[in-house]
């Protein structure tokens, strides 16, 4: 287990060691969240690195990463625990005629408890308090938000058969949202907040150099300039940093030295995820954007 950095520069350096390049503002809010023991709420478009920062923190600090992937219909029971009913039924059949009171007590013990992410994050961990990633919170509904607000206020959960379980050491909590809907202010107030935006050209060059170091500077500049140009177009889903990295790796796998309209057409599925967007970039449109990119990059 590694100690939490005691400076903002130290935090940025630790994240950079895990190939996560972040600006001063994001480095500052991460440093403050860990120093003050506050949950960190990250909002932004999909693919800008919100989830990756939790992974980088866990790796850099030598902590376990526990991920709660949110979805529509997620409820408190699914996020906290469930009982192993199959094993309980086997135990009941095996113990027929035995002491009923003792059997009931045993059935609802840790032996038959299946820990889901929230309960697991509040249980003792060998490497210290884990990093709890609550990913895409905006996919859930308001009742789950209300439950989560209570759980994160005291870092405890209640299991009717066992009582209240409190975390011996609060986990490092990262919440993310793609802002498909607004998350309630009461939950946001419990957290430090940061909007994770698309990086500028220089920052995205740093990120690509860390994640795809085999790419030449010329190819990297063309790839990033083209992706950033796409982000200004009227697309259903703009490509994120994750798509920039994926595209560069695809181009490297094809031994591409520089972009061409043909190469772009063949690999659009790495950066665009909707057919309408892909169709819009077919033919002369890709060449037009590439010509504009080369004029800007060469300027």
For the structure shown, list the relevant keywords.
about 300 residues, two-stranded antiparallel sheet, 15 helices, alpha/beta, 9 strands, five-stranded parallel β-sheet, Rossmann fold, single chain
Summarize this, please?
This protein has helices at 8-17, 24-36, 50-61, 76-80, 85-94, 100-107, 117-121, 142-154, 185-189, 201-211, 217-230, 241-253, 261-267, 275-280, 284-298, and strands spanning 40-43, 65-69, 81-83, 113-115, 131-135, 156-159, 163-166, 172-177, 192-195.
Which H/E pattern describes the elements?
Answer: HHEHEHEHHEHEHEEEHEHHHHHH
* End-to-end Cα distance: 48 Å
> In the CATH hierarchy, what is the superfamily of the largest domain?
P-loop containing nucleotide triphosphate hydrolases
- The number of distinct structural domains comes to 2
Strand content: 5-15%
Percent of residues in helical segments? Answer: 40-55%
Biggest sheet character: 5 strands, parallel
Query: Gyration radius, to the nearest Å?
Result: 24 Å
Annotation field: number of helices: 15
Give start-end ranges of low-pLDDT stretches.
none
What features would you describe in this structure?
This protein has 299 residues and is of the alpha/beta class. The chain has two domains: 8-79 and 114-195, Rossmann fold; 201-290. 49% of the residues lie in helices and 13% in strands. It has 15 helices and nine strands. The chain has helices spanning 8-17, 24-36, 50-61, 76-80, 85-94, 100-107, 117-121, 142-154, 185-189, 201-211, 217-230, 241-253, 261-267, 275-280, 284-298; strands at residues 40-43, 65-69, 81-83, 113-115, 131-135, 156-159, 163-166, 172-177, 192-195. The strands form three sheets. Strands 2-5-8-1-9 form a five-stranded parallel β-sheet. Strand 6 (156-159) and strand 7 (163-166) form a beta hairpin. Helix 10 crosses helix 11 (217-230) and helix 11 (217-230) packs across helix 15. The chain is elongated and about 80 Å long. The relative contact order is 0.13. The model has no long low-confidence stretch (mean pLDDT 90).
């Amino acid at each position: 287990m590694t100690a939490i950095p005691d400076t903002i520069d130290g935090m940025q350096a630790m994240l950079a060691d895990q190939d996560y390049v972040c600006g001063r503002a994001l480095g500052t809010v991460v440093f403050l969240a860990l120093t003050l023991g506050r949950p960190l709420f990250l909002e932004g478009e999909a693919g800008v690195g919100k989830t990756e920062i939790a992974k980088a923190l866990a790796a850099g600090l030598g902590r376990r990463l526990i991920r709660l992937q949110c979805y529509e219909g997620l409820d408190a029971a699914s996020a906290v625990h469930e009982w192993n009913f199959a094993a309980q039924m086997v135990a009941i059949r095996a113990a027929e005629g035995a002491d009923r009171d003792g059997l009931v007590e045993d059935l609802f013990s840790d032996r038959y408890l299946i820990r889901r992410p929230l309960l697991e994050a509040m249980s003792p961990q060998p490497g210290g308090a884990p990093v709890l990633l609550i990913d895409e919170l905006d996919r859930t509904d308001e009742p789950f938000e209300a439950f989560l607000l209570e759980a994160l206020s005291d870092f405890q959960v209640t299991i009717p058969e066992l009582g209240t379980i409190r975390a011996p050491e609060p986990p490092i909590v990262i919440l993310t949202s793609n802002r498909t809907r607004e998350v309630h202010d009461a939950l946001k107030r419990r957290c430090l907040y940061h909007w994770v935006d698309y990086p500028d050209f220089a920052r995205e060059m740093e990120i690509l150099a860390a994640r795809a170091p085999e790419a030449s500077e010329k190819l990297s500049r063309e790839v990033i300039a083209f992706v950033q140009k796409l982000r200004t177009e009227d697309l259903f889903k703009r490509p994120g940093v994750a798509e920039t990295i994926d595209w560069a790796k695809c181009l490297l796998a094809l031994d591409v030295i520089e972009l061409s309209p043909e190469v772009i057409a063949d690999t659009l599925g790495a950066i665009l995820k909707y057919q309408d967007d892909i169709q819009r970039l077919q033919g002369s449109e890709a060449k037009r954007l590439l010509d504009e990119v080369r004029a800007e990059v060469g300027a």
